[in-house]
Each structure stands twice: as C-alpha cells, then as structure tokens.
Design goal:
The chain is an alpha+beta fold and 183 residues long. The chain contains three helices and six strands. The longest helix is centred in the N-terminal third of the chain and has 25 residues, at 8-32. The radius of gyration is 18 Å and the shape is globular.
C-alpha cells in the first residue's frame, strides 16, 4: 500500500517555512557582505526595529526582565532612522566602523509563532529565531551578540518584508563598545 498523499495544507506550510528561512538567510548574507541598501529594501516603509534592554530580576518578576517599548531600549528605530545609520556607515568616516568590522551572522531555530491552522490568508506572520553575531574589529576587538528575535513579516507585492523586529539580547550589560552592527 502506498503512503497517503501529503496534505496540501502541510505542504503549503512547509513551503512557507522554507521561504522564510531563505529570506532570513539572505538577510544575513546581505549584512555580512555590507550590502546595506539591499538590506534596507527588506523592510516595509512603516517598519520598526526594536532592541529592548534586559533587566536582572528575581523569579517572581521573570516576566518583567525586558523593558517595554515606552521604556528605555538599546535601539528603537523606524526605516528612515535605519537608512540614516546606513548612510553614516557608508560615508567611510564613521569612527566606530573605520576600519570596517568583520561580521558573521548565524540564524537558527527559525519557526512560525502562529499556529499552522491560522496561516490561511494571514497578512502578517510572526517568526521567531535565535541569532549569534560575531564581530571582530582591528586586531583585538571581538564581540559576541547572542539572543532571539521576533520578526513580523508581511507580504508586499508578492515579497516578504519586515514589518517589525524585536531583538532580545541575552545580556543585561552590553559588553560591546558600540552597536554599529545590525542584528
């Protein structure tokens, strides 16, 4: 007896997951190759890019270990501000990126936060992943940025775009000298 034909909904789900993985891996390549204008094109016009701060809290307050959007953050930007950061780096006189850092982005544990059943005709998708960003600058400056991301993706004119990014670093004190690297 032949195996049952795969469920069309399951195949559509697997196809979507693969498309999202390719999208996130392409983004990592664009950042590592310093193709910042192409990277910016991955963001919707109304997108937000947010990196809240972590706090050291006790067990009973564990749900309060990340600052809210109306509180202090490492980064809270829109696409226009990201474009200004990119333009500043591209001047060649940005002190924290002259000479340029060597950066490698690793993305893993990619999964849809939405249930498989809720994906039909959904306009935005919440994707969770883990990241490891290695940066080396000059001879001795090395940084490791590790954490998780919550991305909201929106299909615009047939292509995926970032509508919102929340970056959660797994450290409460930033050990890097600066945050010129995009995550």
């Amino acid at each position: 007896m032949l195996a049952a034909e795969p469920d069309r909904a399951r195949l559509a789900y697997l196809s979507l997951i693969r498309e999202i993985e390719d999208f996130l891996y392409r983004e990592a390549d664009l950042l590592d190759e310093r193709r910042y204008d192409e990277w910016l094109d991955l963001f919707a016009g109304d997108s937000t890019y947010w990196m809240p701060m972590r706090k050291n809290v006790g067990w009973k307050d564990r749900d309060k270990d990340i600052t809210d959007e109306d509180d202090i953050a490492w980064v809270l930007e829109d696409k226009a501000t990201l474009a200004k950061r990119v333009a500043q780096i591209k001047t060649g006189i940005h002190w924290a990126e002259e000479p340029l850092s060597r950066v490698s982005h690793l993305i893993t544990n990619i999964r849809l936060a939405d249930s498989e059943d809720s994906l039909v005709d959904k306009l935005e998708l919440t994707v969770k992943c883990r990241f490891f960003v290695y940066r080396n600058r000059l001879e001795t400056e090395t940084d490791f940025l590790v954490g998780r991301r919550h991305d909201v993706l929106r299909r615009t004119d047939g292509a995926l775009k970032f509508a919102r990014r929340k970056i959660i670093l797994e450290q409460s004190v930033l050990m890097a000298k600066n945050l010129t690297v995009f995550i």
